[in-house]
Design a protein that fits this description.
heterodimer; A: 356 residues; alpha/beta; Rossmann fold; 2 domains; 7-stranded mixed beta sheet; 5-stranded mixed beta sheet; B: 272 residues; two-stranded antiparallel ribbon; 11 helices
């Protein structure tokens, strides 16, 4: 029989990191994700030999990640919005140097110091770049504590498959709430050294060096073209999404993370009133499931995107649908979580009149 | 044939022929294996080349080329990985010691050093420098202090001397506006995590030998897992000081070394 545990999102994620055979965690406290570092500080070292170090800042933490990721080890950090902003320079370096690592953003409301309440206000930062230059993170958006667990191993696998930083974009509510989870088995820490890693140069190979500096324009363009080619390939292979009662739906709610679950409830309420509503949930925010949304647009009358921000992912929904159908938006900000009732109300206000 | 009866031509072709001269027992100077053949981009008279070579010599002598990982900074030595025949990482500006921490923590049995200039280590990276030293990371930090930003073209550094002109202090560094030059090695020598802190130079043969000894100490203490070693090398910048190499060395001795005196700032206590 499966063993189920009741765990808080942040702690479940930390446990999943130990179980995934993570080699090192470097981080700095910030609400609402400090439990990750606190949990790992308990006994991760004892259990697997995993390095756990509290850095003096998020800037230091991401650069410890940069150094350690260059050795080919499985390394991760976590933070929340303002801390992730501080890490952006390092993330850009890591993306350009093509180092695998796992980053976790337990998003809180912004801008500025904002609030410690949940938000999805960092969608643009995570998906469109965040730091300087043309680069992409692979972005995973869990909607349950179980996915907070599952996305850790998935994140490491994708990071090493593509030599690319992966971000788990979650929020303060998922980080703090408790749900039942099924934990995976303990994986041993790998002893493999990738051929690009800086681990000390044996006589048998040329030196390895990790850099994102290419002074000559042609060379830098070549690096960029290589990265863009990789990102297109990631778009071909790694799109993940979830659909809830979309088959006969006339209206689609589009949402990621926790909000998608609230949308499911809203869809159920709508169906009780005879309105056929489905929910489309992107799991990968980059690569984005644009083709799926575009295909869905041929079958439905409209879409309502619901987010805990002022309207960020809705831009990608509109790009995907490309004007075929109206795409409406409902957003709550500053830590306010939308309710199923207000989603239903918005949906009726925007679409039900037309349908009659 | 007797050498005395040889013609000059015979003497050159038979006695001091290349194959007779270029033999191991006559070898007095060679490129360390840890140094690559790549021509360095440093300006004539710059101390970076000597400092690189000293690190390479020490790595060769300790036989740790296969166990050493270096971290280059942002600044003139950003391309250090093009000159050193070891695995290296080029860190963001100021963050070399954080990157070195990350490497050392996951590879505790390897040798890790960072190589950083004054702007990198003592301005933008001060936080990382202090905390890396305070944690007593078991690494070596080599700190090149030439009192100026070289790569960006001669702006004021945290270590620029009072009255010293730079492109951003065109009338000389004024304490009232920019504060005093930062003696960061004195500062970090106070931290318990620092095992060894010393200030050297590479302007004379004697100082070069002392600097090499200091770097050697840094690697040896790392082998013994003693904590952090910090080797400051006071250097020159002929291009941005707008001097000839010889003038710059003289100016360095008279001015830089007066404010940054050479010598040990922290040495290991005698262990009996």
């Amino acid at each position: 029989m499966k063993e189920l545990k009741l765990m808080k999102g942040n702690e479940a994620l930390a446990e999943a990191a130990i179980l995934a055979g993570c080699d090192a965690y470097f981080g700095y406290p910030i609400t609402p994700q400090s439990e990750v570092l606190e949990y790992l500080a308990q006994d991760a070292l004892e259990r697997t030999g995993m390095v756990v170090l509290q850095a003096e800042s998020e800037v230091a933490a991401i650069n410890m990640i940069y150094g350690a990721a260059g050795t080919g080890k499985k390394v991760m950090t976590s933070s929340s919005s303002p801390g992730i902003s501080l890490m952006q320079e390092g993330i850009s370096y890591i993306a350009c140097a093509e180092l695998p690592c796992l980053l976790v953003n337990v998003v809180r409301g912004g801008p500025g110091l904002g609030t410690i309440q949940p938000s999805q206000g960092d969608y643009f930062q995570a998906v469109k770049g965040g730091g300087h230059g043309d680069y992409k993170l692979i972005v995973l958006a869990p909607s349950t504590v179980q996915e907070m667990v599952d996305h850790v191993k998935l994140g490491f696998d994708l990071a090493f498959k593509w030599r690319n930083p992966v971000m788990i974009l979650t929020d303060g509510a998922l980080g703090q709430m408790m749900e039942k989870v099924e934990l995976p088995v303990q994986l041993s820490r790998t002893t493999e050294e990738p051929d690009w890693a800086t681990v000390g140069k044996p006589k048998t190979r040329e030196r390895n060096f990790i850099t994102s500096l290419h002074i000559e324009a042609d060379k830098m363009q070549e690096i960029n073209l290589h990265l863009q080619k990789k990102y297109r390939e990631i778009e071909n292979q790694e799109i993940r999404f979830d659909k809830f009662e979309c088959d006969d739906a006339e209206i689609i709610l589009v949402a990621f993370g926790l909000v998608a679950r609230i949308c499911q409830k809203a869809a159920q309420l709508a169906r009780q009133k005879g309105i056929k509503v489905g929910v489309f949930r992107p799991i990968t925010l980059f690569p984005y499931p644009s083709n799926e949304l575009n295909k869905l647009a041929d079958k439905v009358k409209g879409m309502l995107t619901v987010e805990m921000n002022a309207g960020q992912m809705v831009e990608d929904v509109r790009l995907s649908v490309n004007g075929k159908i109206p795409v409406e938006f409902l957003g709550r900000m500053g830590g306010v979580v939308p309710t199923p009732e207000e989603i239903l109300h918005k949906l009726e206000e925007k679409f039900v009149g037309e349908m009659v | 044939m007797n050498e005395k009866t040889m013609t000059e031509e015979q003497y050159f072709s038979e006695v001091i022929a290349e194959e007779n001269i270029c033999v191991n027992e006559n070898l007095v100077f060679e490129k360390p294996e840890t140094l690559l053949d790549t021509p360095m981009h440093y300006c004539p008279g710059c101390g970076h080349g000597v400092a690189h070579r000293l690190i390479a010599e020490v790595i060769d002598e300790l036989g740790i080329q296969d166990k050493t990982i270096g971290v280059a900074p942002v600044g003139c030595s950003v391309f250090m990985y093009n000159y050193m025949n070891i695995d290296m990482t080029e860190a963001p500006h100021g963050r070399a010691s954080a990157a070195a921490t990350g490497i050392k923590r996951v590879l505790p049995d390897k040798y890790v050093f960072s190589y950083q200039g004054d702007g990198d280590l003592a301005a933008i990276g001060t936080g990382e420098t202090i905390h890396t030293c305070n944690r007593g990371e078991n690494i070596l930090i080599v700190f090149i202090n030439n009192g100026i930003y070289g790569m960006t073209g001669g702006q004021m550094a945290p270590t620029t001397l009072v009255g010293m002109k730079s492109t951003t202090t065109p009338f000389g560094r004024d304490i009232a506006i920019m504060g005093n030059p930062l003696k960061i090695t004195d500062l970090i020598a106070q931290l318990p995590g620092v095992y060894y802190a010393t200030r050297c130079a590479v302007n004379t043969p004697v100082n070069v030998r002392k600097a090499k000894k200091a770097i050697l100490n840094g690697f040896k203490y790392q082998e013994l897992k003693k904590g952090l070693s910090f080797v400051e090398i006071v250097s020159n910048c002929p291009s941005n000081w707008k001097m000839t190499p010889v003038e710059s060395n003289k100016w360095m001795e008279e001015n830089m070394l007066a404010y940054y005196p050479l010598g040990d700032l922290k040495v290991p206590a005698k262990e009996n």
